[in-house]
Amino acid sequence: MMKAILFDLDGVLYEGEEAVTGAADVIDWCNSENIPHLFLTNTSSRPRSALVEKLQAFNIKTDVDDYLTPPLAASQWLKQHGVTTVSLFIPAATQAEFSGFDLCTDEARQTGAVIIGDLGEAWDFKLLNTAFRLLMNNPDAVLIALGMTRYWRAADGLRLDAAPFVKALEHATGRTATVLGKPSQAFYQAALDRLDTEAGSSLMIGDDIRGDIEGAQQAGLHTALVRTGKYRPQDLETGISPDTVLDSVADLPAWWQQQL
């Protein structure tokens, strides 16, 4: 029997700046039924406080502790591994999660980690090459990916996310990135630990067939794919089979009750 729910954000509860119809009612239902839940996102372009404000605009009341984001997970990982100097390739808005670290932007300096997030249109050859040189000049530095989302749906269509840039650096340097976001099993386990629940009694609901569905399944969770956000009919031809496919998150309560 399922007891907890992990929610993806963009594409599930909202699409860009528009709420998915019925999303607020679903979160109200979770609260009224006392179902433990957590919001998971691979976004590295905004802090958790901004996510609280965004959901508030959709009549969804949350707290910063209701979110697990890759910058938060990365900060915790770095502290656990004794890394003190980092090179950040993430938006300024989310650099606050790394306020306790020495920041390195000089290619000639030593760094303990090169951290790649979603910089969107801020990426150019010079910036990507700086990340490459920092890794080549620091053989012991770890390459950290704040998620491996391949693309996402913006108002003007599909856009590349962080994964293609991480893959470019992996290929050029011969390194393998440490992934601290979806679809990393460690990221899903961190979410389960925060809810004090087990994978076999938890549901991940998302719109990304690989990052949300395949990643959660590999971590042992049940999964629900929604036909909103980046969902495409071809997703169901990938060989990845979610436990259920819902037209939208609004259908979750009825499906949940059927399972009970």
What keywords describe this structure?
five-stranded parallel sheet, globular, 2 domains, alpha/beta, Rossmann fold, 260 residues
Structure description:
Helices cover 32% and strands 20% of the residues. With 260 residues, the protein is α/β, with parallel strands linked by helices. It folds into two domains: 4-42 and 182-259, Rossmann fold (3-Layer(aba) Sandwich); 71-179, Rossmann fold.
Beta-strand residue fraction? 15-25%
- CATH class category label of the largest domain: Alpha Beta
Report helical residue fraction: 25-40%
Q: Please state how the strands of the largest beta sheet are arranged side by side.
A: 5-4-1-13-14-15
Topology-level CATH name of the largest domain = Rossmann fold
Shape: globular
Topology diagram in text:
Layout: E1 4-8, E2 14-15, E3 18-19, H1 23-32, E4 37-40, H2 48-57, E5 67-68, H3 70-80, E6 85-89, E7 102-103, E8 113-116, H4 125-137, E9 142-145, E10 151-154, E11 157-160, H5 163-173, E12 178-179, H6 185-195, E13 202-206, H7 209-218, E14 222-226, E15 244-246, H8 252-259
Parallel strand pairs: 1-4, 1-13, 4-5, 6-7, 6-8, 8-9, 9-12, 13-14, 14-15
Antiparallel strand pairs: 2-3, 10-11
